[in-house]
Amino acid sequence: MAENFEQHSDVSAADLARLTQEAQAEATPSTAKIIWSEFKADKPAMAALFIIVGFILFVMIGALFINTPKMMETNIMGYFNQPFTPEYWLGADSGGRSVAKQLIVGSRNSIGIAIGLTVISSTFGICWGLISGYFNGYIDWGMQRVYDFMMMLPMTMMIIVLVTIIPHYNSVTLTLIFSIFYWEGTSRLIRSRTLAESEKDYVSASRTSGTNHWKIIFREIMPNISSLIIVDCTLSFAENIGVETGLSYLGFGLPSQTPSLGTMIANANDPNNITQYWWTWLPAALEIIILCLSISYVGQVLRRAADASQRQGAAD
Q1: What does the alpha-carbon distance between residue 262 and residue 240 come to, in Å, rounded to a whole number?
Q2: What is the CATH number of the domain that holds 212?
Q3: Which residue ranges does UniProt annotate as crossing the membrane (predicted)?
Q4: b/e for 117-153, b at 16 or more Cβ within 10 A?
């Protein structure tokens, strides 16, 4: 009789624990639900998200149906055609080339470079900052001397020199050249936060228990600074759109026969284009402004969602 009672009590305790865990899992929203709820609460950010995703999909898919070499051929009959004509939705430039088609292909090139640059430079900068800040000591000292040396180099001049001496470069080559120099800011930011995190109790407890250093860095410290990483990557993406645009505007970006947002804005160098032929540069300028503002809105929502997720994890 007593044995049956004890067995029944054990089963009831196990069922109670299981039900409690299921209830907690249902009560605790997932990260995806937290992000979605933040977007639903912020209507401008929701609109910005649709603008970014929709526009990127549009230019990436639309560029596949445009013959770029044929598009860049000179058409004297289309010399500075005005917008809203059958063949020229957004007008034509001095070579009779469609501004709308150049905007699609140029946006694809500029956004592709910005995405690639953000992925490469942010990944390298985050890893560099995490390792430098966690190990500290001589490792941190040596890594920071490399950082100081890179910061002393004139970044813009070095990029211009590399672009000049490399024959037949393309968007991939340009992205790799940019990535050599644009990881420093991210690494410095992540290092400073990692130095603070590595002094906290949960890191000390993991070290004492013999947890592998790389697990501590990438499974414990990095998730706890995810909000900082999200904001930095978002702002870096908006900044990297301007990096390619600025160099192409100066004539040191993509080749002249490869359209980009920078080469289109460079049409504003001619005073006549600013006043009379505004359609040759204004659409690209407006696109950059709208994209950067939209990316900023989305980044703020992702930061709030990451903070809420961390607070929920700490509460659990």
Answers
A1: 12
A2: 1.10.3720.10
A3: 45-66, 111-135, 155-183
A4: bbbbbbebbbbbbbbbbbeeeeebeebeeebeeeeee
Q: Which of 311, 310, 123 is nearest to 218 (CA)?
A: 123
Rounded Cα–Cα distance for residues 16 and 9 (Å): 10
Of the listed ranges 16-30, 62-76, 84-98, 265-279, the least confidently predicted one is 16-30
In a domain, 181, yes or no: yes
User: Please, are residues 115 and 237 in contact by the beta-carbon 8 Å criterion?
Assistant: yes
Determine whether 199 is exposed, middle or buried from the number of CB atoms within 10 Å of its CB (0-12, 13-18, 19+): exposed
- The reported pTM is 0.81
**pLDDT tens, residue by residue, 177-234:** 889 888 888 999 999 989 988 888 888 888 888 889 899 999 889 988 887 888 888 8
- With 0-12 / 13-18 / 19 or more C-beta atoms within 10 angstroms meaning exposed / middle / buried, residue 6 is exposed
Domain presence at residue 246: yes
Is pLDDT at 300 greater than 70 in this prediction?
yes
Residue 223 lies in a domain: yes
Per DSSP (E only), the strands in the chain are: none
What is the domain count for the chain? 1
Residue 219 lies in a domain: yes
